[in-house]
């Protein structure tokens, strides 16, 4: 009930998190992540480790803005008490899912879903992650406001970030970073 009231207050006061606001907060956190974690990135640590460190930066960005009821979780697989499931068109069946990183209030509001891949990665795994973001941002499913596919090439310092909204990829940004 408390979160419902907070969300109604945010809606009235114009503080509901939009796609653009979430994208801006992600980009701020990503800049901090890249600046603060060069050592672990260069050492080829696992996606889980990288996502956990990105989660720390995202959490701090939201806390700095006063969003104390928003959580950033890594490898989260629940829809309240049930295991989160989606229908996979690639496999033509219902599948349990675990998203690499999500931003939510652990109640009814899903804000950001992120899948991360380090290059090289097999195409099947990449396609599954992209499909997951299409489904998670679709208004008929879990209604995440923004989905982010984060592809990191450690060897040449290239990052490609694809943004999803309403079940579709709508924007891709490519960066070269010095690691």
What does this structure look like?
This protein is of the alpha+beta class and 179 residues long. The protein has one domain: tt1808, chain A. The protein is 37% helix and 33% strand. The chain has 5 helices and 10 strands, in the order ααααβββββββαβββ. The strands form 3 sheets. Strands 1-6-7-8-9-10 form a 6-stranded mixed β-sheet, with helices on both faces. A hairpin with a 4-residue loop joins β4 and β5. The protein is globular, with a radius of gyration of 16 Å.
Total domain units = 1
Give the amount of beta strand, in percent.
Answer: 25-35%
**Helix-strand makeup class:** alpha+beta
Radius of gyration: 16 Å
Largest sheet: 6 strands, mixed
Can you identify the CATH class? Alpha Beta
- Please, how many helices? 5
Can you give the helix content as a percent range? Answer: 25-40%
| Low-confidence blocks of residues | 1-7
Mean pLDDT equals 84
Count of individual beta strands: 10
CATH architecture identity:
Alpha-Beta Complex
**Distance between termini?**
45 Å
**CATH fold descriptor:** tt1808, chain A
SSE run? HHHHEEEEEEEHEEE
Strand order of the largest sheet: 1-6-7-8-9-10
Shape: globular
Sequence-ordered SSE layout with sheet pairings:
Layout: H1 2-12, H2 19-36, H3 38-42, H4 47-64, E1 71-76, E2 78-79, E3 82-83, E4 85-88, E5 93-96, E6 99-104, E7 110-119, H5 123-136, E8 146-153, E9 158-165, E10 168-176
Parallel strand pairs: 7-8
Antiparallel strand pairs: 1-6, 2-3, 4-5, 6-7, 8-9, 9-10
């Amino acid at each position: 009930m408390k979160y419902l009231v907070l969300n109604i207050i945010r809606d009235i006061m114009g503080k509901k998190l939009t796609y653009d606001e979430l994208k801006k907060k992600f980009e701020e956190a990503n800049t901090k992540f890249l600046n603060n974690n060069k050592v672990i990135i260069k050492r080829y640590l696992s996606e889980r480790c990288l996502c956990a460190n990105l989660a720390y930066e995202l959490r701090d960005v939201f806390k700095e803005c006063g969003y104390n009821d928003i959580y950033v979780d890594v490898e989260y697989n629940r829809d309240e008490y049930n295991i989160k499931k989606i229908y996979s068109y690639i496999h033509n069946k219902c599948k349990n899912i675990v998203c690499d990183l999500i931003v939510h209030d652990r109640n009814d509001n899903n804000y950001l879903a992120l899948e991360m891949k380090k290059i090289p990665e097999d195409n099947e795994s990449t396609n599954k992650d992209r499909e997951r973001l299409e489904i998670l941002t679709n208004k008929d499913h879990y209604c995440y406001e923004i989905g982010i596919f984060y592809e990191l090439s450690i060897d040449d310092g290239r990052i490609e970030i694809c943004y999803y909204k309403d079940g579709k990829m709508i924007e891709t940004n490519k960066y070269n970073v010095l690691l």
